[in-house]
């Protein structure tokens, strides 16, 4: 069941980038679409947790939920949705996979935590991949908006990294609260902030939201992407640990690239593909210590179970 759910979240998260692209291309305002997605998904999940008596409305009064929502939802997805007006869904997925590298960078620069040699090498390899990925378009004929979109996604990953580091403290601060309830609360706040941003920057036309592409994209992202995907992610965290489920970042970009090329006519060059592979390899190397620790723990647990049975 664990492996099946893991493969399912890899598939879900890999397809959300194309779903965003379809909605944006259908003229759905990016900030409004993102705001509706996370506000509705967060509200439904939170009410469900309250109904199951695993959350209380007082949780929404905590400033920690607001700060987490700014990092994990508002900052991350405002930039991603805006950027996908100009960047293909596959490239957006790969650039979003730099999140773990940004976490290591913030730990080094802000928290003054010295990374291991392996993590440092992984960061260098990963950012080399980013340069290779952007290289084909960094020409005189390149679209300035494409470059700005790519930079925006990378900037959004700094928000994600900040939110991820902060959310670890929040989870420890609220040990009795369900991780799903905490995630729902931060999505509520993040979605609300996105709607405020939309109200001040976008002119929302109802007709653009009623096309089949826009409705289908929004429904898929709310139900499958946010509610099902994130719930499965936190279920895996509870059943395993925070490291294993996060490895979807190594698989989903390849899924996003493949479906973008096959089903949406997105292009791919050899240099870009080398950049993609380099980013993923760098991310794996940077997080290899955590992955090896996970394997060792699972091995020790299996040995203990064998000893108890014998």
TrEMBL record:
<comment type="similarity">
    <text>Belongs to the EamA transporter family.</text>
</comment>
<dbReference type="GO" id="GO:0005886">
    <property type="term" value="C:plasma membrane"/>
</dbReference>
<dbReference type="Pfam" id="PF00892">
    <property type="entry name" value="EamA"/>
</dbReference>
<dbReference type="InterPro" id="IPR037185">
    <property type="entry name" value="EmrE-like"/>
</dbReference>
<feature type="transmembrane region" description="Helical">
    <location>
        <begin position="178"/>
        <end position="197"/>
    </location>
</feature>
<keyword id="KW-1003">Cell membrane</keyword>
<feature type="transmembrane region" description="Helical">
    <location>
        <begin position="270"/>
        <end position="295"/>
    </location>
</feature>
<feature type="domain" description="EamA">
    <location>
        <begin position="3"/>
        <end position="134"/>
    </location>
</feature>
<dbReference type="InterPro" id="IPR000620">
    <property type="entry name" value="EamA_dom"/>
</dbReference>
<keyword id="KW-1133">Transmembrane helix</keyword>
<dbReference type="InterPro" id="IPR050638">
    <property type="entry name" value="AA-Vitamin_Transporters"/>
</dbReference>
<feature type="transmembrane region" description="Helical">
    <location>
        <begin position="65"/>
        <end position="83"/>
    </location>
</feature>
<feature type="transmembrane region" description="Helical">
    <location>
        <begin position="89"/>
        <end position="110"/>
    </location>
</feature>
<feature type="transmembrane region" description="Helical">
    <location>
        <begin position="243"/>
        <end position="264"/>
    </location>
</feature>
<keyword id="KW-0472">Membrane</keyword>
<keyword id="KW-0812">Transmembrane</keyword>
<feature type="transmembrane region" description="Helical">
    <location>
        <begin position="217"/>
        <end position="236"/>
    </location>
</feature>
<feature type="transmembrane region" description="Helical">
    <location>
        <begin position="117"/>
        <end position="138"/>
    </location>
</feature>
<protein>
    <submittedName>
        <fullName>EamA family transporter</fullName>
    </submittedName>
</protein>
<feature type="transmembrane region" description="Helical">
    <location>
        <begin position="36"/>
        <end position="53"/>
    </location>
</feature>
<feature type="transmembrane region" description="Helical">
    <location>
        <begin position="144"/>
        <end position="166"/>
    </location>
</feature>
<feature type="domain" description="EamA">
    <location>
        <begin position="149"/>
        <end position="287"/>
    </location>
</feature>
């Amino acid at each position: 069941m664990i492996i099946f759910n893991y493969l399912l979240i890899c598939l879900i998260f890999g397809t959300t980038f194309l779903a965003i692209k379809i909605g944006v291309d259908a003229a759905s305002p990016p900030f409004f679409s993102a705001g509706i997605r996370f506000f509705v998904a967060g509200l439904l999940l939170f009410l469900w947790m309250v109904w199951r008596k695993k959350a209380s409305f007082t949780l929404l009064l905590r400033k920690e939920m607001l700060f987490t929502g700014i990092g994990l939802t508002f900052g991350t997805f405002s930039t991603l949705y805006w950027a996908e007006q100009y960047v293909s869904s596959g490239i957006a997925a790969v650039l979003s996979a730099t999140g773990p590298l940004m976490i290591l960078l913030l730990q080094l620069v802000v928290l003054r935590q010295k990374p291991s040699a392996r993590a440092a090498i992984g960061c260098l390899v990963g950012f080399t991949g980013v340069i290779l990925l952007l290289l084909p378009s960094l020409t005189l004929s390149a679209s300035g908006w494409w470059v700005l979109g790519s930079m925006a996604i990378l900037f959004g990953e700094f928000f994600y990294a900040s939110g991820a580091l902060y959310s670890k403290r929040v989870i420890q601060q609220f040990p009795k609260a369900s991780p799903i309830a905490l995630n729902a609360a931060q999505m509520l706040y993040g979605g609300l902030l996105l709607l405020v941003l939309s109200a001040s920057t976008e002119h929302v036309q109802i007709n653009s939201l009623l096309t089949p592409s826009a409705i289908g994209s929004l429904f898929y992202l709310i139900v499958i992407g946010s509610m099902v995907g994130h719930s499965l992610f936190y279920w895996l965290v509870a059943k395993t640990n925070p490291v294993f489920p996060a490895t979807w970042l190594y698989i989903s970009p390849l899924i996003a690239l493949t479906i973008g090329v096959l089903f949406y006519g997105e292009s791919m060059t050899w240099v870009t593909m080398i950049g993609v592979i380099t980013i993923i390899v760098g991310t794996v190397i940077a997080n290899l210590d955590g992955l090896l620790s996970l394997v060792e723990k699972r091995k020790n647990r299996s040995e203990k179970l064998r000893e108890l049975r014998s």
